[in-house]
Design brief:
Elements lengths: L1 E3 L4 E11 L2 E8 L6 H12 L7 E3 L3 H10 L4 H12 L1 E3 L1 H4 L12 H7 L11 H14 L2 H30 L37 H9 L3 H4 L29 E4 L13 E17 L2 E16 L5 E2 L2 H4 L7 H12 L5 H12 L5 H14 L1 H12 L5 E8 L4 E8 L6 E2 L1
Parallel strand pairs: 4-5, 6-8
Antiparallel strand pairs: 1-2, 2-3, 7-8, 8-9, 10-11, 11-12
Helix pairs in contact: 2-3, 5-7, 6-7, 11-13, 12-13
Length: 420
């Protein structure tokens, strides 16, 4: 099956049916997402022609799509989907922890290339299939559709070759040669591989008795063999009468007074001070010796203009919209990204280290603050990279809730890296 990551859309299903020694190829294509149900129903009609069968696939992608589409169908068709799932066999499950090939991974491409299968287009990959699909959607050219169909069909034949390899290994399991018999053995049982490590877990004869004593002390059994029983009860310690102190608020480290010289509306200087108000802002202060809690109190007054009769607050005071300042937000985001800590862990660390109650819901809002704070820098870097002559692009797979996504790493040799 071929689909677009994150969209929940499977647009291509390929089947290679081997029945009575004959091979049949079947391809089902969906132009749009509305055609997805149609191609799955066609697959059901084709498979229902066979009573006893095994549907081989590589990985869990096919099972996920079958379950996803089955939830959209009526009760009868969902039962047909469930039957297919019961007759499915994941070939990849036989490779993990059972068969070890000299490849970098257990992907179908690596294993297929190792056992001699060659794709017609050497650039054929899962990422390239996404590019071909997008180009087909934008241009409608048949060459991209044909490439996708051919790539999907060749994946099916590569799977057949991997299945045949596993079948040969299982059939000849009792006849596997030992690594000591020949250096050219292609298939070797793990139990027949000679262990080259000289380290073993048993007691040895030591040249000196002191070495034997040291070795015995290194085992936990040495502690269990010596059990001591206390003959006298320990006297109970008297609890100290420590007075319970009331919880004091955090000490104010700095106080900043904000004033207004003229009216914000008429710009006149004839003002009267009214009621005083204040606001605390929680921050962290970075020094050469470490990080400490830093509480700043901002004070001001309500002002009344004798000319236009309006009441207002100073603009700088109104601009203080958050209870938490920039340094504290930076520290929490660094813990989240740099140290890979969860919001719950960061909330716990705020209290354990700084005695601050910062809820995890507020830490989640810090990400929004950072997005807005660095939006200008992001746009500027992106513009410079796109205007350069050479752009380096790399992709990294990401595990999402229901599917696998990709992050694109775009950079220039003189510019910073940007993720999309």
């Amino acid at each position: 099956m071929e689909g677009l990551p994150g969209s929940g859309f499977c647009y291509l299903i390929g089947l290679v049916i081997i029945h009575n020694g004959k091979t049949f190829e079947n391809t089902f294509w969906a132009d749009t997402k509305n055609d997805e149900i149609t191609i799955f129903l066609k697959v059901l009609e084709l498979i229902d022609q066979f009573e006893n069968y095994t549907l081989y696939h590589y990985g869990n992608y096919e099972i996920k799509n079958l379950k996803r589409v089955g939830n959209k169908l009526n009760f009868t068709n969902k039962k047909r989907i469930d039957k297919i799932i019961r007759y499915c066999c994941n070939v990849l499950s036989f490779m993990y922890s059972n068969i070890y090939l000299p490849t970098y991974s257990n992907s179908l491409k690596d294993i297929g290339n190792y056992i001699g299968f060659k794709w017609t287009d050497k650039k054929s990959t899962g990422i390239q299939s996404i590019v071909w699909r997008k180009r087909w959607e934008s241009t409608g050219l048949m060459k991209y559709k044909n490439k996708l169909i051919k790539y999907n069909r060749e994946d099916c034949y590569a799977l057949v070759k991997v299945y045949n390899l596993i079948k040969v290994i299982i059939t000849n399991e009792n006849n596997l040669v030992s690594a000591e018999d020949t250096d050219e053995a292609m298939i070797i049982h793990v139990d027949n591989i000679k262990k080259s490590s000289p380290f073993k877990f048993w007691n040895k004869d030591f040249a000196l008795e002191e070495f034997d004593m040291i070795n015995k002390c290194s085992y936990f059994d040495y502690q269990r063999e010596r059990v001591h029983i206390r003959e006298h009860k320990l006297p109970k310690k008297k609890k100290a009468n420590i007075p319970i102190r009331a919880k004091n608020p955090h000490r104010i480290n700095k106080t900043i007074d904000l004033y207004s010289k003229n009216c914000i509306k008429c710009k006149k200087y004839n003002l009267d001070k009214k009621r005083q108000i204040s606001r605390k802002v929680i921050d962290l202060k970075f020094t050469n010796g470490g990080v400490k809690r830093w509480i700043v109190r901002y004070r001001t007054h309500y002002y009344s203009c004798n000319n236009c009769k309006i009441k207002f607050l100073p603009t700088k005071y109104k601009n203080i919209k958050s209870k938490y300042a920039h340094n504290l937000i930076c520290w929490s985001i660094f813990q989240y990204i740099g140290n890979n800590q969860s919001f719950i862990k960061i909330e716990h660390n705020f209290y354990e280290i700084f005695k601050l109650n910062v809820p995890k819901t507020m830490i989640h809002e810090f990400k929004r603050y950072f997005m807005e704070y660095y939006d200008y820098t992001y746009t500027k870097i992106k513009k410079k990279i796109l205007c350069s002559e050479v752009i380096y692009i790399d992709e990294t797979p990401l595990k999402m809730k229901y599917d696998t996504g990709y992050a694109w790493d775009i950079s220039h040799f003189r510019r910073s890296t940007i993720l999309l």
